[in-house]
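Dear Dr. H.,

I hope your travels went smoothly. While you were away I took the liberty of generating a structure for the chain from your last submission, since the lab meeting agenda had it listed for discussion. I wanted you to have the full record in hand beforehand rather than looking at slides cold. The sequence, exactly as received, is reproduced here:
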Amino acid sequence: MQPDNTKSDVRFLPQLEGDNPFVEFKLGHMPFHAGIAGGNGAPVTITYPSPLNHGINDPAVDGTRHLWSGSDQNRQQAKLWYFSSTYLANVLILSSPIKAENERPPANPIRIADIARSLYREDIEPVLMDLDMEFSFADPIEGRDGVIRKTKSGAYASYTVRFQTKPRPLTAEELAAVETHGLHDLRAEFGPRPTDEQIAVLAEMFHASLHGEPFDAARWGAAYPGLKVQEVRGSLVPLPPSNGNGRASRYDADDKPAAEDGLTKQTLSALRSRVTTMSA
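The corresponding predicted structure, in token form, is as follows:
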């Protein structure tokens, strides 16, 4: 996690498919006010990768949809079961206060940034949709570096993302890192496509949650992939690493030989990202 009152210099990288470097991740929520069955009775919230990520209806969202057209109280109730969105992107770490605390930099400087919806809408989306900008800030040649700042006042931390005004091509060393390590498959964060049986598990959980029953960990704990207790996503930090420096992934497993200077024409062509195409 990025320390308070610090900044990180990063370069957002495009996806190999599509022009938007970000993928929206929907996280489902179910409150269990009676806690976990057999536990101390303390309320918990269970989170899970929503089947909406795969274009499948979420029983908790469907089951509370009618509340949104009711009173303010009903809408507040509906929010308890509504999904939250964060936005995932590949980033190349240029400088980081986290990196300075380690004896050596990580072998793979490419991480997954997990961006809160509000921050994405306020600081990133307007830049993505700027029709006066010919190239995306994620373009490896005509793109622009980003600065992530974290400030904290009292108990609350806030983040901002700002982009340099002048474009900068990635260096031969940075391009080699992209070619050597590759980009993370952001959609892998969605988890496997849920089966009909697993959707039925979510429906059963929702019914229990709605009726004030405890969460049955023995029955449901391993029945749906990615269930977690009181897990909160959305802070602007690289996700937890395998080596203490960044994102856990198959790219961290082994050090690979350095790539040749520059990038192959095929890979470079695949990385190019024009905003005009994305906005069409």
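Two observations you may find useful: The CA atoms of residues 108 and 252 lie 6 Å apart. The chain has one domain: 6-239+258-279.

With kind regards,
E. W.
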